[in-house]
Design goal:
The chain is α+β, with helices and mostly antiparallel strands. 56% of the residues lie in helices and 12% in strands. This is YbaB/EbfC family nucleoid-associated protein.
Length: 125
């Protein structure tokens, strides 16, 4: 009986080790996520990393002759938003396998908060 118990515990420990290793790999991949978006005319390039953090902006030297300051700002924002959207999608795809089954969450959280709280105490109002 003790051998079966120890074997079960050892298998559980191996499974936890596998899950932790997968989590570490995914976290490293997540931190490496990066996307660059370039304007159609090639004048503006914006690179965004995890969580939409701006990592770089490249401007073609001719951009100053082609765009007004407000047009340039708009072009930078447009490319940053495009790159951030791509990063968000890639991050979601990367993290999705680590998320719990939505049906499981519905079963737990669909009950409402009252299911997790004790009932009113006798004598309380």
């Amino acid at each position: 009986m003790a051998d079966a118990f120890e074997a079960t515990i050892e298998e559980m420990a191996r499974e936890i080790d596998r899950q932790v290793a997968r989590l570490r790999e995914t976290y490293a991949e997540y931190n490496a996520v990066e996307r660059t978006s370039r304007s159609k005319d090639g004048m503006v390039s914006v690179t965004v990393g995890p969580n939409g953090r701006l990592r770089g902006i490249e401007l073609n030297p001719r951009v100053y002759r082609s765009l007004s300051p407000s047009e340039l700002a708009e072009a930078i924002m447009r490319q940053a938003e495009a790159a951030a959207g791509e990063v968000a999608e890639q991050s979601r795809t990367l993290m999705e396998p680590l998320m719990p089954d939505p049906e499981l969450l519905d079963g737990v959280f669909g009950q409402g908060l009252d299911a997790f709280l004790p009932g009113p105490r006798k004598g309380s109002r």
